[in-house]
Structures are given as structure tokens and as C-alpha cells.
Automatic annotation (TrEMBL):
It is found in: Cell outer membrane. Gene3D superfamilies: Outer membrane efflux proteins (OEP). It holds the Pfam family OEP. GO terms for molecular function: efflux transmembrane transporter activity; porin activity. It comes from Marinomonas gallaica. Belongs to the outer membrane factor (OMF) (TC 1.B.17) family. This is Outer membrane protein TolC. Keywords: Cell outer membrane, Membrane, Signal, Transmembrane, Transmembrane beta strand, Transport.
Amino acid sequence: MPLTPKLIAVLVSAGVSSAVFAEDTSRDAQTNQITTFSAALKQAKQNDPELKYSFHTLQAEQEIDDIAFANLLPSVSLQSSYRYQKVDDYYTEYKEQSEPEDSQIARNPARYDEDQSDYSYQVKLQQSLINIGAWQAYDSAKEAVRKSQFTYSRAEQELIYRLSSAYLKALLAAQQLYINQDKLESLQLKLDQTQRMNELGVGDRLNVLRATSSRDVARSDLLQSKSELKDAQTQLENITGSSVDIPSAWVTYGYKVLPNLGNGSEDEWINSIQSNTTLLAEMANVRSKELEADAQKSQHLPTLNFSLSYVDRHNDDIYSDSSNYIASLDLTIPIYSGGKTSAQSRRSEANYNAAQARYEKLLSDKKQAVKLAYSQLSSYRERLLALEESRTSSKTFLEAAERQADLSLGSQVDVLEARTELYNVRLQFAKTLSDYLLSDLNLRLETGQLNDSTLAQYDNLFASNAK
């Protein structure tokens, strides 16, 4: 293959390999394809089994509130019974000893029969008037429901984090594949040029071997990028349930993205940790355990119930028929239950202390996580700025090498080396940008600020620079 056309192709445009990249990575985005962070999240919410599990768990735990509240409401019940009995008493014996025409037996013959039956039904309404333990149990149940709501919110945020991490991983792999493809072509041209110079006697065999080694390493990096992209796309597809096509412009112009997301001081971020949904869930759990302990202690207190009932009884014996209206106040004073109430109270108190200790540990862990995420975010931001300066200087050096080559003051090898160096800077920039955005996700997750708008912000960030 002639050398001059290759060099012209490399010097004219850095996008020589865009067609190859498009074939290796993904198809061009279509209107019905998932391409952006936000679109992928929308699909993931419909597919992710962990989020579905958290949602149904929330629905189940919300019923705890209604169950506890039902203990405070009136209860109405209907009871009915039928009874058959074989009787052997004074009246049955009297019948055996009496004459058949006995008037007393004639007035109520069923009373003197051995076989007797009766049925009855009762309608009863009961309302608790004084039951401190039931009210405290209801308050505890409400806190338990709040905990489940925070737990579900955390599950939503963790889905956003998992999806974003997988998307960033796929995007980084696609960028590395694109850059490594260009880098490999540039190094191949450099090797061709070095071999040509060696054949003409103006080169060095050592330079040929060095160029060959660099080309082989670039080829290995390209194959690794392909493998990493396939793995990342598989992971992303597992979360969303469908394929995700990363916009080719985001891959091609990713080096233009220079975000500044970590606004605010470290103290401000640490103070916002109280919005962490895991902490909020644990705080609600502590409050629930505290109220549960109070409810158990209240089992020692008297309770007062009001009941209203109607009983209607029908018997073969007309003297046993009755209809009764009963209103009563029932006072219950616990005296002794074998130590059961005291043991339950001690257990609830221990559970409360354990929940309090776990909350304090979790608070400490989250503060450390926020400090670490903020430190990483600041560090990656500084590295991005340094790499941006390096990219600018590398681009300037490449342009200078091209001008020298055009004026026959420099070799094409210098141009290819400068271009390779620019590719190396872009690779470092892509990796650092991915790490920077992951640190931002960590910081937002641990401060409870990770939501759909975060991914919309990422979409705008890449879309505005992909021009």
C-alpha cells in the first residue's frame, strides 16, 4: 500500500476510523432506541427486579399501619350457635312418674323431654376506651411505615446509581475503543514509515523494533477495549432489559466535556447528609423501636373497654327463651403473667438500644463516605483541568509538527508520535472523566440528592458538547 495516501488520511482528520468504530460498537441511534441516561433509567424502572421487590415490600409493610389502627377502632361481631342435649334431671324423672294427662306437663311438654335443643345469636360491639399500649403500638407502626418508604426511596436511588455506573462504564469502553482504533492506525503508519526509513538506510533497526512493540501494545489495548465494551453493554442490558445504543457523538467528542459538578464546601456536603435515605430509614427505625418499647412497658397498665351486645336465645323449653340487651364497662388490671410482660419489655428496650447504636455507626460511616467522595471529586476535577491543559499543549505540538513536515523541516514520524501522544492524553481524560462522574454519583447518593434530574443533567452535559 502506498505510504502517502495513508499519511494524508491521518493528517487531514482524526476521524479516519469512525466507520470502523461504528461497526464495532453500536448502530446509529434511532428514535425508538434507548440512547441517553434518562431513557435508560425509565426502562430500568420497568425492568429491574430489585426495585420491584422493594416496591411490593413497601406495599406489604404499609398495611402494618392499618393493622395497628384497627386495634383502636370499634369491633363488631356476630355469633350464632345451635345446641342439642340429652337431659336427665328432675323434670324428665317427674314425667316418667306422672300421669300422661298431667296439666303441668301439658303446658310445657318440651321441658320434660329428654331430647332438647336450642339456638342463639349474639351481636356485640366493643370499643377500647383506655389502652395506652395500643396507641403507642400504633405510633410505632407509623414509624415502621416511614422506614419502609425511605427504604424504597433508597432502592430507587441505588437503581439510578447502578444504571449510571453501568452506562458510564459502557461509555468509557466505547471511547477507549474509538481512540485505540485511531491510535493503532497511527502507530501502524509510524511503523510503516520507520521501516521505510530503515530500508533507505536513514533509520535505525532499534526504532523499528520500538515502533513494532508500540503497535502490538496498541492492538492489545484495542482488543481489550472491545471485550470491556461487550461486557459493559451486557451489564447495562441486564439492568434495562433491552439494548442501549450510546450516541456516537458522545463517544467522538467526549474529550470536550469538562464538568464542574461538586459545588459547595466539604462542610456543606457533610451537613446535607441528614437527607441520606438510609439514615432517614434508620432514624425512623430507632423511633419505631422506642415506641415499641414504651408499648411493651404499658402492658402493665390497666385497660378499659366498653361493650354493647344483644343476645337472642330460642329453646324448646319456653321458659328458657330470652332476649337480652347488655351494656358493660370491662376493666382489666394485669397482676401476674409469669414474667412474660417484663421479659417482652426488656427485649424491646434492648432492641431500641441496638437500633440506636446502629444508627450512630451508620451516621459515622456515611460521614466518612461523603468526605471520601468529596475528596475524590475534587481530585478528579483537578486532574481533568491538568489533562485539558495537556490536551491543548499536545494539540499545539501536533499542529507544529505538521507545519514542520509540510515545510520539510521535520519527519512524518514526528507527526505520528505527536498524534499518538494526543491519543494517550484523550484516553487518560476519558478515564478520569468517568471516575469524576462516578465520584459525583457517590456524593449525591450518600447525601440523598441522587434522582432523575441528575441523569438529565448528565444528558445535557454530553449533548451540549457533542457538536
